Amino acid sequence: MELTPIECMMQEFGDPNPEEARRWLGRYGIGGELQSMQMNTMSDGIKARVVFAKIAREAPHILLLDEPTNFLDMDSIDSLARAINSYTGGMLLVSHDVRLISQV
Questions:
Q1: What distance in Å separates the CA atoms of residue 56 and residue 84, rounded to the nearest whole number?
Q2: What torsion, rounded to 10 degrees, do the Cα atoms 20, 57, 34, 23 define?
Q3: CA nearest neighbour of 6 among 73, 70, 28
Q4: Residues 85, 87, 89, CA angle at the centre, nearest 5°?
Q5: Could you tell me if 2 and 31 are in contact, meaning their C-beta atoms sit under 8 angstroms apart?
Q6: Looking at the structure, do residues 28 and 50 belong to the same domain, yes or no?
Q7: Do 18 and 67 share a structural domain?
Q8: 8-state DSSP, 39
Q9: pTM of the entire predicted model
Q10: pLDDT tens, residue by residue, 47-93
Q11: Do 51 and 58 form a contact (C-beta atoms < 8 A)?
Q12: Same domain for 55 and 4
């Protein structure tokens, strides 16, 4: 949690250039100063975006999502729904969020 999102992505994927990490994070609404803040100072919603960026970059064959909307705002929930709908792998989704469920 002491790492910044850029450091986390670079460490996880072995990127020598932070620009690739910046691009991935930017796709998930983590831009500007958020990219260089320690994650322990961020809201749970922003931390969730970092996790989603990391998951997307890993390109898994199956997703297990347990209440993924707990800390997301409505725009983020809509973005997550679009991402789920375009996902071609298998997925198990546990959610009580009617907004997400109705979209997927």
A1: 11
A2: 30
A3: 28
A4: 130
A5: no
A6: yes
A7: no
A8: G
A9: 0.80
A10: 999 999 999 899 899 999 999 999 999 999 999 999 999 999 999 99
A11: no
A12: yes
